[in-house]
Amino acid sequence: MSMYSDLLYHTTLTVIDYHEDRSGAKHSVYVLGTHAQVAAAKTFARKALHELKYEPDDFKEYSVRSGSEEWKHGDGVVVYARAPAGQVFTIGVYTTPNNESLLANPDGSIVLPKGAELLHYVVQTTIDYNKDRTGCEQQTEIEGSYVIRADALAAAKKCLDAANFAEYDVRDEMAGEWPFGEDVVVHAVSETGQNYTVAVTTVPGAHRRHSKQK
Fold first, then answer.
1. What is the DSSP letter of 93?
2. pLDDT digits (tens, 9 = 90+) for 50-102
3. I need a surface site. Which of 14, 54, 76, 171 has the fewest CB within 10 A?
């Protein structure tokens, strides 16, 4: 029997590549899955790196939050792993409203409408150069999840108000090369120097790029 939840819980992978950029400014955030129960999302998060073909022995440091110990890796982080080459992987859980009124199975998994195979996520990232000139001070938020890609693209274009920014670029309105990433729909810069990107991404995209080949 399907159930309804006002909230959705999205499991994410964040990769900070200290090997390529020692400042830690190179962040990549990917959505790995969505559940209607926080417990189901956290269970999925604990297994997420394994699903991407990684094992604890692949990392110099590997920590899973149990809830009983002191945790130094952030409130929303469930798994923290540091590779020998310097890359840091964190698996976290973000909460958003159930903006598409999606139903869920008793185990917390999402029921997609007939004919739909995946969700499209609107992801906003803010880089605050006032706090750190290297760009390592970053914040990512999931603004919503959509069954239809066109709806996600439309929502992405409404996340930021162009009137509030010194620079505001929309991908499909620019001619020539787009330098902000293949998933990025909007890029903006505030008068005080904060940089914003709004992207539309999917779960298969994350698995294709980050699954470790054995």
1. E
2. 999 999 999 999 999 987 678 898 888 999 999 998 899 999 999 999 999 99
3. 76
Dig out the tokens for 3 from the structure.
């159930």
Provide the residue ranges of all domains of the chain, joining segments of one domain with +: 3-210
Each residue's pLDDT tens digit, 145-170:
999 999 999 999 999 999 999 999 99
Residue type, position 37, single letter: Q
In three-state form (DSSP H/G/I as H, E/B as E, the rest C), the secondary structure along 115-156 is CCCCCEEEEEEEECCCCCCCCCCEEEEEEEEECCHHHHHHHH
Share of the chain residues as helix, strand and coil, in percent rounded to the nearest 5? 20, 40, 40
Length of the chain: 214
Contact 198, 160 (CB under 8 A): yes
